[in-house]
Design the sequence.
C-alpha cells in the first residue's frame, strides 16, 4: 500500500486497458465562468432522480412552498428526498417526461416560482466537528444528495459505510468530451469542495484521500493543489487524459492498480468514490443547510451561440437552458443529456434538469452526424483494443445479432460499462453499444420470465405434494374408521350387532331403491292391470322390456357356434354374472321385505313357504278389501242417491284413495311374489337348470352328469340335440362302426361332434351291456 | 418539434472500412513498383485484369443478393483482393488465370460465405491455391528478372504473351525463361530446392544467376518494398503489430535453427525473409482481419504458426513457396485459436493474474 502512495507521489499511475482519445471540445465552455440564469417560469421536479425509490410526497396541489422546503421525505434507506428549488406554488403533481434514455414519464411536482426566492429557515452549522456521525449522515440524507457524476447513488449510503476504508477517491476526471461542469466548479469553489471532502473523511476515516483529475484541466488541478498544499492526507493525482478514466472501475485501477472484481462493489475493497460535485453538495448541505436544489450544468454544442456552464435549479426544463444560451434551432435538432459518449438523446426539450444532469449537448449537424453508415464488421479488432473492460465487442456483436444469450453471458456482456469506446473506433460504424443494450434488456427480460416460471413450477409442485398428502391423510382416516367399525361389528356385543344390522339395512335400502326401478313381472302386472291403469301401463312397458331382454339373450346365445370351445368358456362368466345379478335382486327383495316390520324375520335363506302364503294372503286380502269397498260404495250410492253432491264427491275420493291404496299394496305384493319366483332360480343350480331346460322344451331325457356341471346350458342343449340327431343317424350302424367313428373323430375339428361321439360311444356300450345282460 | 433520437455514443472517429482498405492499397504501391521495375509489365497487367474481373463479379453477386451496390462495390475490399492476387501471380501467366482467380476469389471465397466480413479464408490466397492446383504449369512458369532475359520484354510483348502465349516476335513463355546459357531459369527458392536435390550445397546454389549478389535478383527488393509498405501500415496503425512480428520471427527462428545445424543444406534466415511472398504475406495477407484471429495473443499464435508452416513447406514440401498454403491452414485454425485466446475480462479471474 505504501508503494501505491509512493508511485502516486512520483506521478506514476497504472493504466487500464483500451481507452480512446475523442476530440475534447472542452474549450467551448471552459473559459467562461459559471453563469447564474433567471428562474424559469415553471419547474418540473421528478420525485425520483436517483437510483433507489422515490420518497413519500409531503405536499399537495395548491401548497405554497419555500425555497429548500422538502417536497418528499425519505422513508427507506434507498430513497432520498427532493426539495423546492425556489419559493412558489405547487400547481400540479402529474406524470411528465423525465430524463431517461427511453423518454419515460414519471411523477413530477410542478412548481410555479413566485420570483421571491424566499428561503425556509436554515440552521447554519459553524463547526462541523460539533456534529456527530449520525447527525452528519442524517444531514446528508435529508439534503437529498445523490451521486452527481451520473449514476445517482444515494450519497449517505456510501458515506455511512462501516467498513475499513483505505482510499477515499474523489472523481474529478470528467473524461467525457464537452463537459466542463466539474472543472468550473473546482475552479470557483475549491474551498467548499475541500470542506465536503473533509466531512466525508470524518465519516469514513480513510487512510488516504486521492483526487483524480485529468491533465486536460490544468487550472482546476492547480487550484486543487493549492487548496491541499499543506495537507498530507489528500493527494491530487493529475492523470493522463484518456476516455473513460472517469469510470469508477477505471479510476480505481489507474490510482491504485487494483481491479474491482466482477460483481463486487468497491466499498468491499476498502475504496469509496465520490464525485467532486457531490462533495460540494455535501459541504453545502452540512455547513449551510442548503439541500441539493441546484447544480452546474454544461450547456454546450455548436448549435448554441453562447455555450456556457450555468447554475441550473433542479427541475429547470432543458428549453429554458437552451434559450439562455441562444439555441439555433434546425429542422431536426439533436439534444443530448450527458456527454457525447454516454449521454442519451432527449425526446423533447421539456425534460427537466435532475441531480445527475451534468451536460446538455446541442450539437450541430456537422458536429455529430445523424447518418447511420453501418457496414459489415471486418473483425479488425479495434473495438477489442479500445474496450476498457477488455471484452471482445466484435464477438459480442455477432452473438447479440444472433440472439445467442448464453454466449453473450459467457463473453461477460454484463461487464460492459457502455462507455461507447468500441462504437467510437469501429471503422464499420456499427452502433455496438446499442446492440449490447438491446441484448442486455432481452436477457434481463428472459431471466425475469425464467424466475416467474420457476416460481410457478415450485407452486405447482407444492400443490401436488399438498394434494397427495391430503389424499393419504384422508385414506388413512377412512381406513382407521373402517377398522374401528369392523372391530365394533366383530366384537359380538349387542351394539355391534345393531351396527351390523344397521349397515345391512342401509345397504338394503339402497338396493331396494335400485330394484324399484327394475323389471316388473308380467303376470303380476297383468293381475294389477284392472286395479290401476297407470301401474298397468308401467307394468306393460316393463314386460316389453323383459321380453326384449330375453329375446336378446336368446339371440346372443344362439349366435354362439356350438363348435367353439372358447365360446363355451366365455359363456361361463356371462352366466355367472347373470347369477350374481339375480342373487343381488334377491337380496334387494329380501331387504325390501325386511324393511317392513311384519317381514323382518325373513332372512336371505328364509323359508319361502312362510312368506308365500302371507303374501298371497295379503294380496287376496287387499283385493277382497277393494272389492268390499267397491261393493259398499255401490250399495251406498244405491242407498242414498238423493245424497248431496258434496258427500258423494267426498265418498268418491275416499273410494279412490282406498283404490290407490289397494293398488300400491297389490303392487308391493306382486313384487314380492315375483322376487320369490326369482329366488329359487338363483338359489339352486338344479332348479335353474330345470326351468331353463323347460323353456327350451326340447330336452332329451338322458342329459348326463357332465352336462349338469357345465355352465352353459344352451350349448349343452345344442350339443345334446346334435348328439340326439347323431344318434338317430348312427343308430342303425351303431354296433358296427363305433371304431370307425372313433377314428374319424380324431380328424374332426368340431368339439361338439366329438362330444356327441363320446356320448354315442357310451350309448353304444350301454346298449351292448343291456343286450349282453 | 421533432428531435433526433440516437443511441450513444453520439460521436465517432469517422473512420471507415473503405479508408482502411485504401490505406492498405497505397501501402502496397512500393512493392508493386519494385515488381514492375524488376519484372516488367506482367503483374501490372494482371492486377488490372483481376481488378476488372473482381469488380464485375462483385457487381453481379451484389445485385443478385440485392445489396447496396454503390456502397459495397467501392468499399475497396474487392480491389484489394484483386491487387493481392495480381501481385502474387507469375508475371507471364495467361490472362484467364487472373480472371478466373479474381472471379473465384470474389464469388466463391467471399460472397458465397456471406460477403465482406464473413469469409473464413483469405480470398486472394484461396484463389491462388485454387489456380496453383488447377493450372500447375501456368502457375509455376515464373518469369526471370528482366536483366537476365536475353530479349527485351516491353509492354506490347508482355501483353501479347499474356493474351496469346507468344511475344510479338513469336517467342513462347518457355523460350522467354531460357537463360543465355540455355537452361530454364526459376525463382531463387526453386533454384535452391532443385539444386539441393541434385547434390549441390547452398553455397554453390548461391552462385546461380537468378540469385545474384544477395538473395535473388529483384526478389530481395520487392520484399524490401513490401516491408517498407508494411512498416508504413504499422505506423498508421492500420494493421496490428502482432501478425508480422509473429510470422517473421517464427520463420527467422526456424530457418536459424536449420541453418545452425546444417548450413550446407539450409538457406540463411535472410534468404527466407527476402524471397518469395514472405513480406507480402507478413504485412498484407496474414494481416487480413476477416480471416485471422482477433486477440493479440491469438494473432501472435496464428502468425507464428504460419511462419512455421511456410518454413516446413519450403524445406520439405513439394512447392517452392508456401505462403498461400500456410495462410489458408492458419485461416482454418484462427477461430479455434480465438476461442482459446480470449483476453481476461476486467474484474474476472483475478486470482490468475
Sequence:
Amino acid at each position: 500500500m505504501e508503494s501505491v502512495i509512493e508511485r502516486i507521489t512520483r506521478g506514476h499511475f497504472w493504466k487500464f486497458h483500451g481507452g480512446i482519445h475523442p476530440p475534447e471540445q472542452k474549450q467551448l465552455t471552459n473559459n467562461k465562468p459559471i453563469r447564474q440564469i433567471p428562474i424559469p417560469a415553471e419547474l418540473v421536479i421528478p420525485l425520483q432522480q436517483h437510483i433507489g425509490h422515490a420518497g413519500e410526497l409531503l405536499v399537495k396541489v395548491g401548497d405554497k412552498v419555500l425555497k429548500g422546503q422538502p417536497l418528499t421525505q425519505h422513508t427507506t434507506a434507498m430513497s432520498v428526498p427532493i426539495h423546492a428549488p425556489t419559493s412558489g406554488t405547487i400547481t400540479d403533481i402529474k406524470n411528465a417526461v423525465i430524463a431517461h434514455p427511453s423518454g419515460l414519464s414519471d411523477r413530477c411536482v410542478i412548481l410555479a416560482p413566485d420570483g421571491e426566492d424566499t428561503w425556509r429557515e436554515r440552521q447554519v452549522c459553524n463547526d462541523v466537528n460539533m456534529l456527530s456521525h449520525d447527525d452528519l449522515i442524517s444531514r446528508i440524507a435529508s439534503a437529498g444528495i445523490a451521486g452527481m457524476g451520473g449514476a445517482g447513488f444515494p450519497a449517505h449510503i456510501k458515506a455511512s459505510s462501516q467498513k475499513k476504508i483505505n482510499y477515499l477517491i474523489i472523481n474529478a476526471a470528467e473524461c467525457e468530451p464537452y463537459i466542463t461542469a466539474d472543472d468550473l466548479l473546482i475552479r470557483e469553489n475549491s474551498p467548499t469542495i475541500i470542506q465536503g471532502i473533509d466531512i466525508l473523511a470524518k465519516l469514513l476515516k480513510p487512510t488516504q484521500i486521492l483526487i483524480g483529475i485529468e491533465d486536460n484541466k490544468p487550472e482546476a488541478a492547480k487550484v486543487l493543489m493549492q487548496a491541499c498544499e499543506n495537507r498530507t492526507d489528500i493527494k491530487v493525482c493529475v492523470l493522463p487524459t484518456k476516455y473513460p478514466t472517469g469510470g469508477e472501475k477505471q479510476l480505481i485501477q489507474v490510482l491504485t492498480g487494483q481491479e474491482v472484481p466482477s460483481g463486487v462493489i468497491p466499498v468491499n475493497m476498502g475504496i469509496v468514490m465520490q464525485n467532486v460535485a457531490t462533495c460540494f453538495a455535501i459541504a453545502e448541505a452540512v455547513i449551510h443547510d442548503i439541500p441539493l436544489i441546484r447544480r452546474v450544468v454544461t450547456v454546450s454544442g455548436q448549435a448554441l451561440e453562447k455555450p456556457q456552464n450555468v447554475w441550473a435549479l433542479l427541475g429547470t426544463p432543458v428549453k429554458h437552458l437552451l434559450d439562455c444560451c441562444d439555441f439555433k434551432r434546425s429542422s431536426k435538432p439533436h439534444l443530448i443529456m450527458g456527454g457525447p459518449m454516454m449521454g442519451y438523446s432527449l425526446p423533447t426539450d421539456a425534460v427537466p434538469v435532475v441531480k445527475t444532469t451534468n451536460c446538455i449537448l446541442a450539437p450541430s449537424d456537422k458536429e455529430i452526424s445523424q447518418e447511420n453508415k453501418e457496414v459489415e464488421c471486418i473483425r479488425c479488432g479495434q473495438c477489442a483494443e479500445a474496450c476498457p473492460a477488455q471484452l471482445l465487442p466484435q464477438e459480442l456483436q455477432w452473438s447479440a445479432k444472433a440472439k445467442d444469450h448464453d454466449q453473450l453471458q459467457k463473453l461477460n456482456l454484463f461487464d460492459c460499462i457502455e462507455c461507447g469506446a468500441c462504437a467510437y473506433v469501429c471503422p464499420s460504424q456499427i452502433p455496438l453499444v446499442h446492440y449490447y443494450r438491446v441484448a442486455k434488456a432481452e436477457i434481463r427480460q428472459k431471466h425475469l420470465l425464467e424466475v416467474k416460471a420457476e416460481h410457478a413450477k415450485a407452486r405447482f409442485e407444492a400443490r401436488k405434494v399438498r394434494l397427495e398428502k391430503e389424499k393419504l391423510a384422508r385414506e388413512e382416516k377412512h381406513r382407521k374408521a373402517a377398522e374401528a367399525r369392523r372391530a365394533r361389528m366383530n366384537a359380538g356385543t349387542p351394539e355391534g350387532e345393531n351396527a351390523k344390522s344397521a349397515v345391512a339395512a342401509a345397504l338394503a335400502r339402497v338396493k331396494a331403491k335400485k330394484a324399484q326401478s327394475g323389471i316388473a313381472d308380467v303376470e303380476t302386472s297383468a293381475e294389477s292391470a284392472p286395479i290401476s291403469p297407470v301401474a298397468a301401463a308401467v307394468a306393460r312397458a316393463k314386460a316389453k322390456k323383459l321380453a326384449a331382454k330375453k329375446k336378446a339373450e336368446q339371440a346372443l346365445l344362439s349366435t354362439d357356434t356350438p363348435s367353439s370351445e372358447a365360446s363355451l368358456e366365455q359363456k361361463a362368466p356371462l352366466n355367472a354374472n347373470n347369477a350374481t345379478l339375480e342373487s343381488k335382486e334377491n337380496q334387494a327383495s329380501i331387504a325390501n321385505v325386511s324393511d317392513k316390520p311384519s317381514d323382518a324375520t325373513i332372512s336371505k335363506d328364509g323359508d319361502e313357504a312362510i312368506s308365500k302364503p302371507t303374501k298371497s294372503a295379503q294380496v287376496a286380502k287387499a283385493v277382497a278389501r277393494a272389492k268390499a269397498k267397491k261393493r259398499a260404495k255401490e250399495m251406498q250410492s244405491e242407498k242414498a242417491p238423493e245424497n248431496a253432491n258434496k258427500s258423494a264427491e267426498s265418498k268418491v275420493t275416499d273410494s279412490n284413495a282406498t283404490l290407490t291404496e289397494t293398488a300400491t299394496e297389490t303392487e308391493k305384493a306382486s313384487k314380492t311374489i315375483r322376487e320369490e319366483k326369482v329366488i329359487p332360480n338363483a338359489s339352486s343350480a338344479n332348479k335353474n337348470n330345470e326351468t331353463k331346460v323347460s323353456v327350451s322344451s326340447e330336452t332329451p331325457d338322458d342329459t348326463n352328469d357332465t352336462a349338469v356341471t357345465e355352465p352353459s346350458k344352451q350349448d349343452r342343449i345344442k350339443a345334446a340335440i346334435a348328439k340326439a340327431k347323431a344318434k338317430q343317424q348312427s343308430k342303425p350302424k351303431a354296433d358296427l362302426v363305433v371304431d370307425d367313428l372313433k377314428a374319424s373323430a380324431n380328424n374332426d375339428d368340431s368339439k361338439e361332434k366329438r362330444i356327441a361321439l363320446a356320448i354315442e360311444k357310451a350309448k353304444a356300450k350301454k346298449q351292448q351291456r343291456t343286450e349282453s345282460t | 418539434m421533432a428531435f433526433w433520437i440516437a443511441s450513444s455514443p453520439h460521436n465517432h472517429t469517422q473512420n471507415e472500412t473503405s479508408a482502411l482498405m485504401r490505406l492498405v492499397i497505397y501501402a502496397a504501391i512500393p512493392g508493386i513498383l519494385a515488381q514492375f521495375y524488376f519484372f516488367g509489365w506482367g503483374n501490372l497487367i494482371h492486377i488490372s485484369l483481376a481488378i476488372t474481373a473482381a469488380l464485375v463479379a462483385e457487381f453481379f453477386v451484389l445485385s443478385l443478393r440485392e445489396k447496396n451496390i454503390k456502397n459495397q462495390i467501392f468499399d475497396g475490399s474487392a480491389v484489394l483482393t484483386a491487387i493481392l492476387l495480381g501481385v502474387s501471380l507469375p508475371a507471364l501467366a495467361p490472362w484467364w488465370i487472373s480472371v478466373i482467380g479474381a472471379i473465384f476469389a470474389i464469388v466463391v471465397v467471399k460472397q458465397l460465405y456471406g460477403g465482406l466480413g464473413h469469409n473464413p479464408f483469405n480470398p486472394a490466397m484461396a484463389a491462388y491455391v485454387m489456380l496453383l492446383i488447377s493450372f500447375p504449369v501456368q502457375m509455376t512458369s515464373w518469369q526471370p528478372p528482366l536483366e537476365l532475359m536475353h530479349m527485351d520484354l516491353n509492354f506490347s510483348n508482355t501483353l501479347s504473351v499474356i493474351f496469346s502465349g507468344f511475344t510479338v516476335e513469336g517467342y513462347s513463355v518457355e523460350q522467354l525463361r531460357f537463360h543465355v546459357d540455355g537452361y530454364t531459369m526459376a525463382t531463387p527458392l526453386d533454384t535452391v530446392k532443385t539444386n539441393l536435390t541434385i547434390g549441390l550445397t547452398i553455397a554453390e546454389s548461391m552462385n546461380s544467376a537468378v540469385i545474384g549478389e544477395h538473395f535473388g535478383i529483384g526478389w530481395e527488393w520487392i520484399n524490401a518494398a513490401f516491408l517498407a509498405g508494411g512498416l508504413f501500415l504499422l505506423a498508421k496503425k492500420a494493421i496490428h503489430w502482432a501478425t508480422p512480428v509473429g510470422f517473421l520471427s517464427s520463420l527467422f527462428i526456424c530457418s536459424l535453427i536449420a541453418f545452425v545445424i546444417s548450413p550446407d543444406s539450409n538457406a540463411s534466415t535472410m534468404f527466407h525473409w527476402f524471397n518469395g511472398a514472405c513480406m507480402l504475406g507478413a504485412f498484407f495477407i496474414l494481416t487480413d482481419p476477416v480471416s485471422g484471429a482477433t486477440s493479440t495473443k491469438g494473432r501472435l499464435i496464428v502468425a507464428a504458426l504460419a511462419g512455421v508452416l511456410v518454413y516446413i513447406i519450403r524445406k520439405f514440401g513439394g512447392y517452392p513457396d508456401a505462403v498461400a498454403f500456410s495462410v489458408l491452414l492458419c485461416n482454418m485454425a484462427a477461430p479455434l485459436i480465438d476461442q482459446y485466446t480470449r483476453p481476461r475480462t476486467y474484474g474476472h479471474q483475478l486470482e490468475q493474474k
About this structure: Chain A touches chain B through 71 residues (CB under 8 Å). The mean pLDDT of chain A is 78.
